[in-house]
Amino acid sequence: MAQQQNVDLRHARTGIELRPGLDGVPATQSAICDIDGERGLLTYRGYPMEDLAANSSFLETAYLLIWGELPTCDELARFEHAVQMHRRVSFRVRDMMKCFPASGHPMDALQSSAASLGLFYSRRAIDDPQYIYDVVVRLIAKIPTMVAAFQLIRKGQDPIQPRDDLAYSANFLYMLTEREPDPLAARIFDRCLMLHAEHSLNASTFSARVTASTLTDPYAVVASAVGTLAGPLHGGANEDVLAMLEEVGTPEKAAGYLDEAIAAKRKIMGFGHREYKVKDPRAVILQSQVEEMFARFGHDQLFDVARAIEAAAESRLGPKGIYPNVDFYSGLVYRKLGIPRDLFTPVFAIARVAGWLAHWREQLGANRIFRPSQIYSGSPPRTWMPPEERVSAPAA
Ligand code: CMC
Known about the structure:
This protein is mostly helical. It has two domains: 33-231 and 343-365, Citrate Synthase, domain 1; 237-336, CATH 1.10.230.10. 54% of the residues lie in helices and 3% in strands. It has helices spanning 49-55, 58-67, 73-85, 91-98, 106-120, 129-154, 168-177, 183-196, 203-212, 218-229, 237-248, 254-263, 281-297, 301-317, 326-336, 344-365; strands at residues 33-36, 41-44, 47-48. It has a three-stranded antiparallel sheet. Helix 7 (168-177) packs across helix 8 (183-196), helix 8 crosses helix 16 and helix 9 packs antiparallel against helix 10 (218-229). The longest helix has 26 residues, at 129-154. It is globular.
């Protein structure tokens, strides 16, 4: 297809300039999360991330994100109980998952299972606060169960049922590994979920809001966000970080690896962020979690490789404002917890569903369907020709 040359990058009617990737373009108003990328500050509903990570729990934080205030004791107890009561998934969902190919990526399995909930819970009443509450509870409760179920199913085993005596994070680790986790491991995992629960208008959250803006069902909203999170430039980066650490192998090789990758214009996975120009505050907290885990459960030499890469990257990428992001250290924690590498992004989704649901709710409160414009760069109008008169165009 012939491309027009010298296309004006301003929109003809509005005069607004095209910004690839919508870099710096506000696309919504939101009261959920704030990022100060220059100073490395992150707040959920005004509360600093560090404060929440030290004192809160994932379910309390999810409640805060979705309803705007920290829950009272009663509200939290009711929410935790409701989530606990809805952890089980229908045998039909489990049977459907048994038909998924075991070789498929767990994010694809999660996207399909999340979307399937719309078939099982087809009532739609987005103006009813009780309906919103029930949807939130159902999704937060069932997503971990579906992630753990696929893990066992693909190994040829039957999924194990949630245990009512275990709290949210401990129960997930139990369903996944079939062992009751050490309380410290469960606590650190819960903290990881808090750190990943929300991050303003990132790609998957934008996807969730666009889908929500059509007033479709909330399961479709979450399924579209899961699909977006799966990509290696977004949630999928945490898998690639571990592959990179293994490839580098020893701390001595870190600087050489970076030089080669930068010369070849390859991205260093787990580095860089559209918003942060300093080290991601979540990476700072995660690094301390890694240290706590290793002090208790034994050292992982890939951590030394990671530290060496971070040190070598300081002079090479730091001047461009490229520092470790949340994905750089999260994989090391998950690895120590016995979570398989291709479940790192589904685990990210378990956490981020809280943020997606908060944005779903906020979007419904002041909805206008997303419908941006484009700068057309294709052919001018032309006339259809019969196949025998056409000549092959060179590949674009
Ligand atoms: N390694 C090396 N160079 C980088 C990196 C990196 N990780 N990230 C950005 N750059 C360079 C890039 O090459 C470009 O340089 P130049 O101007 O010389 O061409 C410049 O920085 C701007 O890069 P960009 O890709 O236009 O930046 P962006 O804001 O569009 O992308 C990003 C942000 C996160 C997609 C990108 O930094 C990246 O691809 N990082 C690696 C993947 C990753 O770790 N993703 C997880 C992000 S945090 C968790 C999440 O949101 O899911």
